[in-house]
Specification:
The protein is of the alpha+beta class and 539 residues long. 42% of the residues lie in helices and 13% in strands. InterPro entries: BTBD16, BTBD16_C.
């Protein structure tokens, strides 16, 4: 092995030669002329090099900028070049990009010998070279220099995150949010859990996502609504209320139960639609809110079950004033027993302004009202009271004419009975405006039943003393009556219905003219329900 002075003399000689003739051939011929000692290594191609050559090459050959001389790098082993770059990182700029990329592709752990800035600069110009770095190396780079994200093509970063979604954690929240704000369609490359976690900590970043992306997220992961602050969700719904449909009803109801003032962010139509399907959710809204809703959209009363509305009125009877009179009258006409949930004052006030609504109340209800509040008789205008009494008088004089009852199916007086055992004969009395009818049902052992109605004379023994004492008798020889007899029973699990249909007949007191048409039923099974419907048309 030559001494240190000998080696130095070799290199001094080399420098002198290179300065005289700086060419590739000169350097190679010089190396070929060197003795093959242990200080030098013979390459496979028969050429000789020395590790000491790296310093000379750095300060001499490469500083010339001669592209041909740069190719001398190929005579150096990888380890020597890596060692060179680790000490003189700024010399990377003198290497062709392809050479450096080739080096990194085979020795990716040598990334650490490059300054971050150098590598970032390399990737910014040769972004496709990212593929030569292991994912771990690139992730490590980004974790320390997250601002270098911008030197990567969006496609490259998206591809990285799509395969290594857990690497999202190596990026600062700000960097990821900035990335998503520009490429919101890339949201799908993130796992739902990752995105949800991001939003849970940076809910204000919701604004960086397109509404469509957030709606799609919530539609599939509605339970993730809980990771958003109520304020953020309410703000979202206020601008995109049609997106309410992507939330589960339970979620929206829960939101409203905690933040009922947020009802105002929903269109009335949306809230009404919600209540129409989930009327029990009325209880989660403050009374004031629902009263305010009804006051502006009184026609929406129909979306609430009667029970819910009645319950509302029973506790907040002063809210009656927020309902249109028509809506309240319609409610009372179908649920007259609900009158009891209104204070007397409220009902009297209603009648004083809408006296024609008296007809919606049952007579018993009105009588009970007037009996306790007789001074409230004055709430009925004299015209209305006179009209009421005159119609009642003419009805009695006309033999019980029901001039206001035009629809038989809705207005007819009904009475009936049930046959579920022996005896095979049943009879009841129907008294109406001075006319008395016996409703009969006669059966036989072979299962044949006959049903009909018959007008009774004033002295008929069928009438009891109590009935004769408390009821008047009409002296009219005949009375036109519209009636219908119906028999209903179940046979072999199916509902059976037989009827005479609506008939019109003049009932007199003679033997043949006092009896109605007979409804005969054969092969019935008990129990058997019989109904008689009667209406007196105008004479």
């Amino acid at each position: 092995m030559p001494s240190h002075s000998t080696v130095l003399s070799y290199f001094n000689r080399f420098i002198d030669l290179f300065l005289i003739e700086p060419s590739h051939s000169t350097v190679l011929s010089y190396f070929n002329s060197l003795p093959k000692t242990s200080s030098f290594v013979e390459r496979d191609d028969g050429q000789i090099y020395s590790p000491m050559f790296s310093a000379v090459r750095l300060h001499g050959i490469l500083d010339t900028g001669n592209i041909q001389d740069m190719q001398l790098m190929n005579i150096l082993p990888r380890d020597t070049l890596i060692d060179l770059l680790s000490q003189h990182y700024h010399s990377v700029s003198i290497l062709p990009r392809e050479t450096l990329i080739d080096l990194l592709s085979q020795h990716y752990h040598s990334v650490s010998i490059l300054h971050r800035e150098t590598l970032i600069d390399l990737l910014s110009q040769h972004y496709h070279s990212v593929s030569i770095l292991p994912r771990e190396a690139l992730i490590d780079l980004l974790s320390q220099h997250y601002h270098s994200v911008r030197i990567l093509h969006r496609e490259t970063l998206i591809d990285l995150l799509s395969q290594h979604y857990h690497s999202v954690s190596i990026l600062p929240r700000e960097a990821l949010i900035d990335f998503l704000s520009q490429h919101y369609h890339s949201v799908r490359i993130l796992h739902r859990e990752t995105l949800i976690d991001l939003l849970s900590q940076h809910y204000h970043s919701v604004s960086i996502l397109p509404r469509e992306a957030l709606i799609d997220l919530l539609s599939q992961h509605y339970h993730s609504v809980s990771i958003l602050p109520r304020e953020a969700l309410i703000d979202f719904l206020s601008q995109h209320y049609h997106s309410v449909s992507i939330l589960h009803r339970e979620t929206l109801i829960d939101l409203l139960s905690h933040h009922y003032h947020s009802v105002s962010i929903l269109p009335r139509e949306t809230l009404i639609d919600l209540l129409s399907q989930h009327y029990h959710s009325v209880s989660i809204l403050p009374r004031e809110t629902i009263i305010d809703l009804l006051s502006q959209h009184y026609h929406s009363v129909s979306i609430l079950p009667r029970e819910a509305l009645i319950d509302l009125m029973s506790q907040h009877y002063h809210s009656v004033s927020i309902l249109p009179r028509e809506a309240l009258i319609d409610l009372l006409s179908q649920h007259y027993h609900s009158v009891s949930i209104l204070p007397r004052e409220a009902l009297i006030n209603l009648l004083s302004q809408h006296y024609h609504s008296v007809s919606i109340l049952h007579r018993e209800t009105l009588i009970d009202l007037l009996s306790q509040h007789y001074h409230s008789v004055s709430i009925l205008p004299r015209e209305a009271l006179i009209d009421l009494l005159s119609q009642h008088y003419h009805s009695l004089q006309g033999g019980g004419d029901m001039s206001l009852m035009k629809n038989f199916n809705n207005c007819a007086i009904r009475q009936g009975f049930v046959i579920d055992s022996d005896p095979l004969y049943h009879s009841e009395i129907l008294s109406l405006h001075g006319f008395h009818f016996e409703l009969k049902g006669v059966g036989s052992r072979d299962g044949i039943y006959s049903f009909y109605m018959q007008r009774l004379k004033p002295g008929d023994p069928v009438l009891s003393f109590r009935q004769c004492e408390r009821q008047t008798f009409s002296m009219r020889a005949d009375r036109e009556v519209r009636y219908c007899i119906t028999a209903q029973y179940v046979k072999k699990g199916e509902n059976q219905l037989q009827t005479t249909g609506i008939k019109s007949q003049k009932f007199a007191l003679g033997e043949k003219t006092s009896k109605s048409e007979v409804l005969q039923v054969v092969g019935v099974e008990k129990p058997l329900y019989i109904q008689f419907s009667v209406l007196f048309p105008t004479s």
